[in-house]
Automatic annotation (TrEMBL):
The protein's name: UDP-glucuronosyltransferase
Species per Swiss-Prot/TrEMBL record: Ascaris suum (Pig roundworm)
A GO term, aspect molecular function: glucuronosyltransferase activity
Pfam family membership, one: UDPGT
InterPro entries, alphabetized: UDP-glycosyltransferase (IPR050271), UDP_glucos_trans (IPR002213), UDP_glycos_trans_CS (IPR035595)
Keyword DNA-binding attached: no
GO cellular component, one term: membrane
Cellular compartment(s): Membrane
Lineage: Eukaryota, Metazoa, Ecdysozoa, Nematoda, Chromadorea
Length: 223
């Protein structure tokens, strides 16, 4: 994460230009109608990425999520599930095989994102100003969750000790505490506050590399 992650030693010929947020697209009518339900206190979006398969999740984890979704009947919940687990879900829960994640997160009624903690997810949460509950599964996701916690707009739960009581407790705390929304709004502004936009910066550094080809000194890390 450009400018936001923990201090990291890198070569001086590496330039980060990732501080860019695309424009969200308009949602399909059925999702707009679901999200904008006047009786809803807000929308919770649950998605664990394309590489995490709910079909492989322990039954206890699936049961915990279903319990929590049923309990949060005052909210609208969009649950992205590759396992087609639609049985007995109440009307305030919409289960989809795929969803336009960034566009949903950018809707002003979306108030919480529950995610595995991929880098794309943490960036989209910043761009959309959406607090996140991370449940890291593998790879760098625990590191990403630590970055979000340091910046004050996320919490995380351990997948190995997750149960319905812990999940519901943390979700309710995040929904009732304005500090997560305040923090992600502040980080969003910092993330995009740059001397030039990312495309202009990428063009500059590309042209500079071509101009100085074979004539620059760099200091590279060992390894």
């Amino acid at each position: 994460m450009d400018y936001l992650a923990f201090p990291t030693p890198i070569s001086n010929d590496v330039v980060n230009i990732g501080s860019y947020c695309p424009q969200a697209k308009r949602l399909p009518p059925d999702l707009i109608e679901f999200i904008e339900d006047s009786s809803s206190k807000g929308t919770i979006y649950i998605a664990m990425g394309t590489n995490v398969k709910w079909a492989n999740a322990p039954s206890s984890i699936i049961a915990a999520f279903k319990y929590v979704m049923r309990e949060l009947h005052q909210y609208r919940i969009i649950f992205v599930d590759d396992n087609n687990s639609r049985e007995e879900m109440p009307s305030h829960v919409k289960v989809l095989n795929w969803a336009p994640q960034f566009d949903i997160l950018n809707h002003n009624k979306t108030i919480l994102f529950i995610s595995h903690g991929g880098l794309k997810s943490i960036k989209e949460s910043i761009c959309s100003k959406t607090p996140v509950l991370f449940i890291p599964i593998f790879a760098e996701q625990t590191h990403n969750a630590a970055i979000g916690a340091k910046l004050g707009f996320t919490r995380s739960l351990n997948k190995l000790t997750l149960n319905s009581e812990k999940l519901l407790l943390v979700v309710r705390e995040m929904l009732s505490n304005d500090r997560y929304m305040d923090s992600v709004s502040r980080i969003h502004d910092i993330f995009l506050d740059r001397p030039m936009n990312s495309l202009e910066e990428a063009v500059f550094w590309t042209n500079r590399t071509l101009r100085l080809a074979g004539r620059k000194n760099t200091f590279k890390r060992k390894g």
